[in-house]
């Protein structure tokens, strides 16, 4: 692949962690799993994958900061750069034997996501992008879809579970968007949802209450694939608010108007 030294480090780390997860996925019924909270699980596989990522990424760039799902945040001696990592996005899918989950790695520089990798081991698809260099899946350049009629478009989102407080908002979203489009998908892995928007498989995506590691890599993928990305509430910061909306340019305004009500 062609890319910066940092991007190559990220891809290699994501693939190594993904191979480790794939081995555990084949024995998913035997995994020892502990409950973190309602509907939110962590497995030994998840923690092992994060250890691999930390070893590879921090080993290569020890001055960078570190933000990940399963470990304490580490401020970097270089305050301008930070790894943002989700070792296993789609944990519930993984634990149920559903082959739709991914490793997500992003690099933040001065508050901006400048590179991202989303690796799906079960399909052997590596999505990656770097600011100004376009977006790719394996060896192919990817672009957001070119659909421009709302009734032909499909969207992805997450659905609240286990009594989460944002259920009423999401039901209102669905009541508005479903009559206007060709469908909505809920596959349970935000990193892959964003990668699929970048690849033109979905025409757009929105979700609330995401963590930075759920979406950081996906944001740069969509932007570099030609999509528009905004905070769900325009005055907010995406990573801080956890609420995002994105789509291809022809439908973005119509889609955003519907979701924002």
Automatic annotation (TrEMBL):
Reaction equation(s) it catalyzes: a myo-inositol phosphate + H2O = myo-inositol + phosphate
Keyword field: Hydrolase, Magnesium, Metal-binding
EC number per UniProt: 3.1.3.25
Cross-referenced CDD domains: IMPase (cd01639)
GO function terms (MF aspect): inositol monophosphate 1-phosphatase activity; metal ion binding
Signal sequence bounds: none
GO biological process terms, semicolon-separated: inositol metabolic process; phosphatidylinositol phosphate biosynthetic process; signal transduction
Cofactors demanded by this protein: Mg(2+)
Alphabetized SUPFAM superfamilies for the sequence: Carbohydrate phosphatase (SSF56655)
InterPro entries on file: IMPase, Inositol_monoP_metal-BS, Inositol_monophosphatase-like, Inositol_monophosphatase_CS, Inositol_monophosphatase_SuhB
Chain sites annotated for binding Mg(2+): 69, 86, 88-89, 214
Domain of life, source organism: Bacteria
Pfam families: Inositol_P
Similarity annotation: Belongs to the inositol monophosphatase superfamily.
Protein name: Inositol-1-monophosphatase
Organism: Halocynthiibacter halioticoli
